[in-house]
Write a structure and sequence with these properties.
The protein has 291 residues and is α/β, with parallel strands linked by helices. It has one domain: Vaccinia Virus protein VP39 (Rossmann fold, 3-Layer(aba) Sandwich), CATH 3.40.50.150. The protein contains 12 helices and 7 strands. It has a 7-stranded mixed sheet with strand order 3-2-1-4-5-7-6, with helices on both faces. α3 links the parallel β1 and β2. The radius of gyration is 18 Å and the shape is globular. It holds the Pfam family Methyltransf_11.
Length: 291
């Protein structure tokens, strides 16, 4: 059945088609936060911090091996290739961006992983895979792009084998069921600016993700907030963007990329004021004893 892309899907595709080449050229293959120690105080280079985030997520999720992984929202394959090498696993990366998928395929061949890693242009809300296809669903900063969070977690559940694991890290907003109360008008305005710049439909709180996961049937659900650990990433990126060559490259990458670069401070300020949170979610699919 053909899936007609929505407006937000087209915006996401065009955003990453336009900006991924620049990001790789300037900042490397990993298009996600870095990990700077639990308190965010470790002084390490940005690329190592990004690799550390992958390792810390695997440790937190208690993943020591895997044979068949799906990387949902794979970018140009930073995590995809890393996981394939680490576990000697078959890994499938999906993205809305044909540019990213094509680049991921080239990078897989360059690393000699063409027989283990595949990249597909696919929608995470309607994945072109059979039920129970994977033993690990890996979603590193893609949930924020999903226009239907419930459908997203349902699809992740569907394609996962019984006993398999979901590890998800995503942008959230602060909890609204604690002393902070509902989001203020100013916070809502701040979020809308982030949505506009980074092509996000909306974000939700980590508590809301947990409830959705429970409703979808996930078991052994765990969550955590690593906002302090990752927040320094944005200031590192902002500092690097002031390099003259980087600024010239940004100017040549198109208007949407320029807007994104000029708006990096939205995220760092979001973390500083406690509005933006970096949420983790882990869950298992029940073993199906009838299989």
């Amino acid at each position: 059945m053909n899936h007609q892309p929505s407006t937000i899907e087209k915006e996401i595709q065009e955003f990453y088609d336009a900006s991924s080449g620049l990001w790789e050229q300037v900042w490397g293959e990993h298009m996600h936060h870095g990990y700077y120690g639990r308190g965010g105080t470790d002084k390490i280079n940005r690329r190592q911090a990004q690799i550390d985030l992958i390792e810390e997520l695997l440790n937190w999720g208690k993943i020591t091996s895997s044979k068949n992984i799906i990387d949902v929202g794979c970018g140009i394959g930073g995590s995809t290739l890393y996981l394939a090498e680490k576990f000697n696993a078959k890994v499938t990366g999906i993205t809305l961006s044909p540019v990213q998928a094509a680049r991921g395929k080239v990078r897989a061949e360059e690393k000699g992983l063409g027989d283990k890693v595949t990249f597909e242009v696919a929608n995470a809300l309607n994945m072109p895979f059979e039920d129970k296809s994977f033993d690990l669903v890996w979603s590193l900063e893609s949930g924020e792009h999903m226009p239907d969070k419930i459908k997203f977690l349902q699809e992740c559940y569907r394609v996962l084998q019984p006993g398999g694991t979901l590890i998800m890290a995503t942008w959230c907003h602060r909890s609204t069921n604690s002393w902070g109360g509902d989001l203020t008008a100013d916070e809502e305005k701040h979020l809308k600016e982030i949505y506009r710049v980074y092509c996000l439909p909306y974000v939700i709180s980590l508590a809301e993700y947990e409830q959705i996961a429970k409703d979808c049937g996930w078991q052994n659900i765990r969550s955590d907030d690593w906002s302090m650990a990752v927040a320094p990433f944005w200031n590192v990126v902002i500092d690097s963007a002031f390099d003259t060559k980087v600024m010239i490259d940004i100017l040549g990458a198109g208007w949407q990329t320029i807007v994104g670069a000029l708006s990096l401070g939205l995220m760092s300020w979001g973390y500083e004021r406690g509005l933006i949170r970096f949420g983790l979610l882990c869950g298992q699919k029940d073993c199906d004893w009838n299989d």
